[in-house]
């Protein structure tokens, strides 16, 4: 090997400062904004920075967070899962329905059914080569229909016995925080490891980056894609179960539009809708940001809660615009 | 010696096309085997058959002495057949190290990825090829040359017995090519069988031992490369018999229509696009047909696209009738009267579900409309004129274009361009994929248009078409003009010689 060729490779590899900054904002932006919002809110509202309120935000965030965790992986792989809102509601109802045969059935039934829906999504997307948007839209409708069928069109709300351990899973606390919060944190810790430190996570990033390249590199693209949707269904079902346990009832009207909140949280957290780039931690920040904004608007009190949607929407628009700008800056940098 | 990989009588059919017909290919360890052929010769299909992307309809693959059929790319890869594609098929957002080890990452005993080991091994591996980069950087932040080398390093590191390189040098700088060749030579020394696909004759003669020439899905020649004259190789690729070349062809062009004294309608100078065009100069006078000669990838289509504003230029200028054109804008070029008939009419031209009328007036709509409304009567009269003039065979102007034959589709596209009243017509493969009769008609039409005073730039991979159609031929190689043939020199023999000529290397 000659030294002449060694130098040649180095010359054109300088990453510009803008590019590095763009990457940093992409990855860490949501956490910075979250910190700012929390800081400003703490100063502005006495009732914001209280332990009770923090607990409140944490528990409210946990259910969405679990759904958004599965969504993060799906979106990183370049897909989308619209069914999670319905699946989440179905999971809750099934938990309350199944608990009449025992707590174990109450936990297993939603996981099996929601997992099956996720698996169906996965098989159709991965092996049927159908567009995830359409497939999961279909299962969104299907899951909602199933839910209405087993609840007499939503008229029956089943309650979960207070003393059951499954209900305790939603209502109990540990070190002052609700058990769902701990479960969520545990799942996110696993998510961080899976995405960052396993072949599966690595392959997920590659599939989202370039599905064709991933296939040509011999990665198990179809199998992994299927597993991603299975995981998303399972997590949505689990989140529904926890939410049902928390309120000790299988509420039929929850979960509508939850898929959009989950997508918003994922995107705000820095994951690109086009796939290939994203972090699990960012999603957690995105979820908290949405819930903190909701909380703050409740604090103001005079504002209609509908303004929460307006603010979240505006936020999402800004984030997507910034992302688009940053990735174009990236492209420019590359073309130079 | 037993071959590492052999394809025997492999055929592959697609609807309406025979992509490969009874193809034999034998790769031996420690040999670099060149695979050459023009567009549509079947090279890509053959590679995809060898790598498990396609399953052949008939024929058989023998790998390491055993009959095999790779069901998926992963199978071929695991078996030791690695491919580096023309477009770098890696994941740009991920780090260099990740791209090298995706799917076979080193793991700790907990089953988690061992990034430290991965980065170290990646750095060592690349250093072995003389590349020192920060392997944790996203791949896309690196130059194309480095990306190509990463792809090759990945391919060569998977304990490969066969490495397939599909036009590996098309986006490389000359010194990067040198680095690549050292790697190829090392692979050869290690006993790997290398299949090398390229159109650059200089490279082939520098690095390859054997050559297989494909044309129209068939093997027309296979044997050692050394001793095979360049002229003969080019003639085989293009399907021209050297003897036949001296005879007269049978196209419908009548030749010679130049108004010698006229000022050029188009002057292009120093057209440069990184990695694609390198200072191309071109002048076309009214009534003149200028052919662009060159092998695939020489920059013919790029030249036409650059003139038509469809390819942004790094430098160079285009002047139409004395007025300098804003480059990189199709609209500006069209206003100045420069129009392009694109190479791929299905992808870039025809709207198959719209009617003949709609397809023809599409581009002219802005000038046919007043206050945003389009006069149906004016449309009809224009459509009528061109259907008659170009002898478009359609049941009615309302017939869907998708139902027409290829030749008539091409005429519809020509009509679309002509109703813009152009000054200069750029034709990229105007007769590709249309039947013989329609071909002759399109040729006659182009001739007629030139006689009416239009400047024409003609690109065709059919040799006789360029030679007999053109008044002047500009020969391109690697994006630069290497020869200009005028008058008496516009012959197939002269063009072949110009194409086969040794480059500056």
TrEMBL record, chain A:
Pfam families assigned to the protein according to its UniProt record, in alphabetical order: BPD_transp_2
InterPro entries: ABC_transp_permease (IPR001851)
Keywords (A to Z) from UniProt: Cell membrane, Membrane, Transmembrane, Transmembrane helix
Compartments where found: Cell membrane
Ranges annotated as spanning the membrane: 29-45, 57-76, 106-127, 133-151, 172-195, 226-248, 260-293, 305-326
Membrane topology value: Multi-pass membrane protein
GO terms for cellular component: plasma membrane
GO molecular function: transmembrane transporter activity
PANTHER family: ABC TRANSPORTER PERMEASE PROTEIN YPHD-RELATED-RELATED, INNER MEMBRANE ABC TRANSPORTER PERMEASE PROTEIN YJFF
Protein name: ATPase
Source organism phylogeny: Bacteria, Bacillati, Actinomycetota, Actinomycetes, Pseudonocardiales
TrEMBL record, chain B:
Membrane disposition: Peripheral membrane protein
InterPro entries named among the record's database cross-references: AAA+_ATPase (IPR003593), ABC_carbohydrate_import_ATPase (IPR050107), ABC_transporter-like_ATP-bd (IPR003439), ABC_transporter-like_CS (IPR017871), P-loop_NTPase (IPR027417)
GO function term, MF aspect, one: ATP hydrolysis activity
Subcellular location, principal: membrane
Cellular component, GO annotation: plasma membrane
Protein localization: Cell membrane
Protein's name according to its UniProt entry: Sugar ABC transporter ATP-binding protein
């Amino acid at each position: 090997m000659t030294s002449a060729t060694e130098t040649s490779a180095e010359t054109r590899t300088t990453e510009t400062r803008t590019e590095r900054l763009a990457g940093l904002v992409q990855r860490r932006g949501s956490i910075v904004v979250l910190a700012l919002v929390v800081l400003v809110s703490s100063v502005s509202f006495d009732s914001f920075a209280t332990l009770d309120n923090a607990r409140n935000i944490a528990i409210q965030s946990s259910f969405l967070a679990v759904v958004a965790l599965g969504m993060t992986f799906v979106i990183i792989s370049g897909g989308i899962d619209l069914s999670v809102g319905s699946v989440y509601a179905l999971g809750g109802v099934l938990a309350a329905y199944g608990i009449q045969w025992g707590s174990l059935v109450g936990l297993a039934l939603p996981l099996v059914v929601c997992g099956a829906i996720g698996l169906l999504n996965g098989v159709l997307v991965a092996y049927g080569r159908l567009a995830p948007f359409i497939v999961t839209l279909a299962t969104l409708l299907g899951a909602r229909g199933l839910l209405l069928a087993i609840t007499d069109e939503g008229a029956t709300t089943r309650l979960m016995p207070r003393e059951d351990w499954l209900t305790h899973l939603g209502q109990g606390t540990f070190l002052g925080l609700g058990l769902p919060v701990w479960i969520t944190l545990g799942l996110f810790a696993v998510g961080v490891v899976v995405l960052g430190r396993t072949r599966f996570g690595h392959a997920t990033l590659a599939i989202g980056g370039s599905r064709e390249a991933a296939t040509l590199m011999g990665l198990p693209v179809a199998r992994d894609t299927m597993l991603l949707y299975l995981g998303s269904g399972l997590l949505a079902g689990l989140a529904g179960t926890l939410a049902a346990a928390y309120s000790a009832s299988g509420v039929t009207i929850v979960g509508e539009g939850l898929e959009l909140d989950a997508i918003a949280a994922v995107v705000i957290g820095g994951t690109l809708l086009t796939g290939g780039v994203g972090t699990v931690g960012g999603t957690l920040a995105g979820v908290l940001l949405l819930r903190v904004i909701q909380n703050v608007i409740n604090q103001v009190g005079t504002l209609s809660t509908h303004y929460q949607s307006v603010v979240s929407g505006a936020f999402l628009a800004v984030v997507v615009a910034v992302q688009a700008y940053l990735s174009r800056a990236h492209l420019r940098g590359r073309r130079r | 010696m037993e071959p590492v990989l052999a394809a025997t009588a492999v055929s592959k059919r697609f609807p309406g096309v025979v992509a490969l017909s009874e193809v034999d290919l034998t790769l031996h360890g420690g040999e670099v085997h060149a695979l050459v052929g023009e567009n549509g010769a079947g090279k890509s299909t053959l590679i995809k058959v060898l790598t498990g992307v396609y399953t052949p309809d008939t024929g058989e693959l023998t790998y390491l002495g055993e009959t095999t059929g790779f069901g998926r790319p992963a199978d071929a890869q695991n078996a030791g057949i690695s491919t580096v594609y023309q477009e770098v098929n890696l994941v740009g957002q991920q780090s260099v190290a990740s791209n090298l080890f995706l799917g076979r990452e080193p793991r700790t005993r907990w089953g988690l990825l061992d990034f430290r080991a991965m980065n170290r091994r990646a750095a060592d591996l690349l250093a072995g090829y003389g590349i020192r980069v920060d392997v944790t950087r996203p791949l896309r932040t690196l130059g194309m040359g480095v990306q190509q080398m990463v792809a090759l390093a990945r391919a060569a590191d998977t304990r490969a017995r066969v490495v397939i390189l599909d036009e590996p040098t098309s986006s490389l700088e000359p010194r990067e090519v040198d680095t690549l060749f050292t790697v190829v030579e090392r692979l050869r020394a290690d006993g790997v069988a290398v299949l090398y696909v390229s159109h650059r004759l200089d490279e082939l003669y520098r690095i390859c031992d054997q050559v297989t020439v494909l044309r129209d899905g068939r093997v027309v020649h296979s044997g050692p490369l050394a001793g095979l004259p360049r002229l003969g190789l080019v003639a085989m690729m293009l399907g021209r018999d050297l003897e036949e070349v001296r005879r007269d062809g049978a196209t419908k062009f009548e030749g010679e229509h130049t108004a010698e004294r006229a000022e050029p309608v188009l002057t292009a100078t120093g057209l440069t696009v990184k990695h694609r065009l390198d200072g191309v100069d071109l002048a076309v006078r009214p009534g003149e047909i200028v052919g662009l000669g060159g092998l695939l990838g020489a920059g013919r289509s790029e030249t036409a696209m650059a003139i038509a504003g469809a390819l942004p230029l790094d430098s160079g200028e285009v002047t139409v009738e004395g007025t300098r054109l804003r480059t990189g804008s199709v609209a500006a070029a069209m206003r100045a009267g420069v129009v392009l008939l694109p190479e791929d009419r299905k992808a870039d031209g025809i709207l198959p579900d719209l009617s003949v009328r709609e397809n023809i007036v599409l581009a002219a709509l802005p000038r046919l409309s007043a206050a945003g409304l389009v006069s149906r009567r004016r449309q009809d009269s224009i459509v009528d004129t061109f259907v008659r003039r170009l002898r478009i065979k359609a049941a009615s102007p309302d017939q869907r274009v998708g139902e027409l034959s290829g030749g008539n589709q091409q005429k519809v596209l020509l009509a679309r361009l002509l109703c813009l009243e152009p000054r200069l017509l750029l034709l990229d493969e105007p007769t590709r994929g249309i039947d013989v009769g329609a071909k002759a008609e399109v040729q006659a039409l182009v001739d007629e248009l030139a006689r009416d005073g239009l400047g024409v730039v003609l690109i065709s991979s059919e040799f006789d078409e360029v030679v007999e159609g053109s008044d002047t031929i500009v020969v391109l190689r690697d994006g630069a003009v290497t020869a200009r043939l005028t008058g008496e020199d516009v012959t197939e023999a002269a063009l072949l010689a110009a194409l086969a000529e040794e480059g500056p290397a």
